[in-house]
Amino acid sequence: xxxxxxxxxxxxxxxxxxxxxxxxxxxxxxxxxxxxxxxxxxxxxxxxxxxxxxxxxxxxxxxxxxxxxxxxxxxxxxxxxxxxxxxxxxxxxxxxxxxxxxxxxxxxxxxxxxxxxxxxxxxxxxxxxxxxxxxxxxxxxxxxxxxxxxxxxxxxxxxxxxxxxxxxxxxxxxxxxxxxxxxx
Length: 184
Prior knowledge:
Oligomer: single chain
CATH architecture: Sandwich
Structural class: alpha+beta
Shape: globular
Number of domains: 1
C-alpha cells in the first residue's frame, strides 16, 4: 500500500516483529542491561508528563529479530528506490499511555522507516501524521502491529498521543543512499 504526500510517497509494508515472543524477550533483556536513565537522553516528546522513551542505537545489535528486520528493510528500499543504502541509526521508541512525538524530520537521512512492533488494536490514535509539504495539511496513516512505513527523511511527521492503557513500541531507523544521487 502507498500514500501520496505531495510529491513524495509513503510505503506501507508488513513484518512479523514478535514471532515466538522474540521482541518481548529482547525488550526485557534491554531493561535488565541498560540503565533506564540512559533513555532520558533520547526523549523526543514535547512534554515531561508523557515522555517517549528511546533506546540507545541498536544498529549493531545482532539479535536475530533485528538482523532479519535490517535485511528486510534494506531489500525493500532497494526494491522501491533501486538504491543501496547505509544504516545510520536504529532505535526503539516506547510510548507509554499519553506519550507522543512532536513534528520533526530526519534531514540527515535520505530514507526513514518506522516499524510498529506493538500497537494496541483498540487504540484508534495509533497513526502516523505526515505533513504534506505542498498543502501543509496532515495525511493520517493508520497503523497496527507489524506495519512498517518507509518514506523520505525530509517529510515532517508526528504521532498522536498514545490513547491506550498499553505501551506502544516502534522501531525507527534512518538510512542514506550510497550513490551520489542521494535524494528520493
